[in-house]
Amino acid sequence: MIQPPVTNISYFGAISMIDNALTARVPMNSTVLGQAQGFYAGAAQKELGFLMAMNFAFKTGKYNGSTITILGRNTALSEVREMPIVGGSGLFRFARGYVEARTKWINLKNGDATVEYSCYVLHY
Q1: Burial of 85 from C-beta contacts in 10 A (0-12 / 13-18 / 19+)
Q2: Which range is the signal sequence, renumbered to this chain (predicted)?
Q3: Which helix (H) or strand (E) holds 81?
């Protein structure tokens, strides 16, 4: 049986775990500050929209051992996505704010991407 081409891939119900390098700037050879760890789950049936839960876990310098926690909706094909910062630990205890995500590079065949996160955070 031959299936028709899929034209509306939403990834609804799919869950992917992430453990990616958190760098100071977009280039992959930029200074590594820690790891971006969490998951994203296909939460929209008719578009590419994810529920995203992610920690920026800092492993160097002044912020070593601290985290920023993000939880929100990520419409991955939008130019800019805004997601809330819902907390943190260490030097980011009681963190609140938001991040703006911008995809800088994407490979649509395997899903690899480089995403820039601009963080606007208030903390104790």
Answers
A1: buried
A2: none
A3: strand 81-89
pTM for the model stands at 0.86
Structure tokens at 103: 């995809």
> Per-residue pLDDT tens for 37-72?
999 999 999 888 999 999 999 999 999 999 999 999
The count of C-alpha atoms lying within 13 angstroms of the C-alpha of 100, restricted to the half-sphere facing its C-beta, is 4
Could you tell me which residues are beta bridge partners of residue 96?
122
Question: CA dihedral defined by 18, 85, 25, 102, rounded to 10 degrees?
Answer: 80
Edge-to-edge strand ranges of the sheet holding 50-58: 15-23, 32-42, 50-58, 67-74, 81-89, 96-106, 113-122
